[in-house]
């Protein structure tokens, strides 16, 4: 049986025959798999302990993004970790490290957020992905419902779907998308974004972002440092510092007159683990939200929004993601799901 690395290399080299049924039957045969037609679609018997492969057909709403393909994904489970956010993130990271050692650093990484390719949904713990972009096909390591998956997809339709999601309507695109200065990314297109129009939208988008963040960054082996500025009549000073690697910590720079303690912020005495991120007494106000599975996304989002309003931020556009936060290692990241301006 192929190792995960060997499987990935064979998938990258596969000729999928234009993603037609006949072409993929030949692909399955070349991989030594057995094609079985079932009511829900073809299943490819792989004899892998992690499970059989499946094909994603072009659905009615997917036709607008394709160029004659019959299928848009070949999905192969490559792990069956125990349930739980930490175990899922650890399993994803293990495959990530194995593939990175063999294939090099992924040209693209991020999170699909609430909505995956072709309107699919991801697991509850987070929806991270790493992508080795190629032509005509792209290989993706994706979080699946039961564990990490390798996903081979035709590059054109997958990128066309992504590019056309940023329609400007609230929540029209979710998650975040990062790309490296890699030759594989030549010609890569980027969708537009959307702007949050009210505080309820900001609360929901922050909740969706913060809740799974430590699980996703742990899985990706990434560390996000995101300053958020608050525009008031007195300017736009830093208001929050969101820092997340294996744990999520948030600092608050609101003045005491805004009542940070009453809003839910604590000090280093209450959250001693934050001393590894910031000095003991600067900033004064902070919170340690925990590791994978621990953050209460909705409660954190409500606290951030209430704090912004307390210091005088008048509208969602007054919360600004600092440009420093768009650099995650050597990836340039766009936080599509937040609906906040970057500056």
Can you walk through the features of this model?
By secondary structure, the protein is α+β, with helices and mostly antiparallel strands. The chain contains 8 helices and 16 strands. It has helices at residues 4-13, 21-30, 85-103, 155-163, 199-210, 213-220, 260-263, 297-311, and strands at 34-38, 41-45, 53-57, 71-77, 108-111, 128-132, 137-143, 148-154, 176-179, 224-230, 238-244, 248-252, 285-290, 319-321, 327-328, 331-334. An 11-stranded antiparallel beta sheet has the order 1-2-3-4-8-7-6-5-9-16-15. Strand 7 (137-143) and strand 8 form a beta hairpin. The protein is elongated and about 70 Å long. 45% of the residues are buried.
Stretches where pLDDT falls below 50 for ≥5 residues?
A: none
For the secondary structure, the number of strands is: 16
Level of helix content? 25-40%
Kindly estimate the percentage of residues that lie in beta strands according to DSSP. Answer: 15-25%
N-to-C SSE string, H for helix and E for strand: HHEEEEHEEEEHEHHEEEHEHEEE
User: Largest beta sheet, briefly?
Assistant: 11 strands, antiparallel
Taking strands numbered 1, 2, ... along the chain, how are they ordered across the largest sheet?
A: 1-2-3-4-8-7-6-5-9-16-15
Choose one word for the global shape.
elongated
């Amino acid at each position: 049986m192929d190792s995960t690395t060997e499987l990935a290399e064979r998938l990258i080299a596969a000729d999928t025959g234009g993603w037609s049924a006949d072409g993929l039957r030949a692909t399955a045969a070349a991989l030594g798999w057995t094609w079985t037609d079932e009511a829900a679609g073809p299943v490819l018997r792989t004899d892998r302990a992690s499970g059989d492969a499946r094909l994603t057909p072009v659905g009615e709403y997917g036709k607008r993004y394709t160029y004659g393909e019959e299928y848009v994904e070949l999905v192969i489970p490559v792990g069956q970790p125990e349930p739980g956010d930490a175990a899922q993130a650890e399993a994803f990271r293990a495959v990530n490290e194995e593939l990175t050692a063999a294939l090099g650093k992924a040209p693209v990484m991020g999170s699909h957020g609430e909505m995956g390719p072709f309107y699919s949904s991801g697991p509850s713990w987070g929806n991270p992905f790493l992508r080795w972009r190629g032509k005509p096909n792209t290989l993706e390591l994706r979080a699946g419902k039961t564990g990490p998956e390798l996903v081979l997809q035709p590059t054109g339709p997958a990128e066309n779907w992504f590019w056309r999601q940023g329609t400007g309507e609230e929540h029209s695109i979710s998650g975040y998308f990062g790309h490296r200065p890699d030759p594989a990314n030549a010609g890569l297109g980027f969708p537009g974004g959307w702007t949050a129009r009210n505080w309820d939208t900001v609360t929901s988008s922050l909740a969706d972002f913060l809740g799974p963040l430590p699980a996703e960054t742990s899985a990706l082996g990434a560390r996000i440092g995101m300053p958020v500025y608050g525009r008031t009549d007195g300017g736009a000073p830093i208001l929050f510092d969101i820092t997340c690697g294996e744990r999520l910590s948030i600092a608050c720079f609101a003045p005491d007159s805004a009542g940070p303690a009453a809003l839910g912020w604590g000090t280093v005495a209450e959250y001693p683990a934050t001393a590894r991120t910031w000095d003991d007494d600067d900033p004064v106000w902070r919170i340690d939200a925990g590791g994978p599975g621990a953050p209460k996304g909705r409660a954190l989002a409500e606290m951030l929004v209430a704090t912004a309003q307390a210091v005088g931020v008048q509208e969602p556009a007054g919360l600004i993601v600092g440009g420093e936060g768009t650099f995650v290692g050597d990836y340039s990241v766009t936080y599509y799901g937040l609906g906040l301006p970057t500056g």
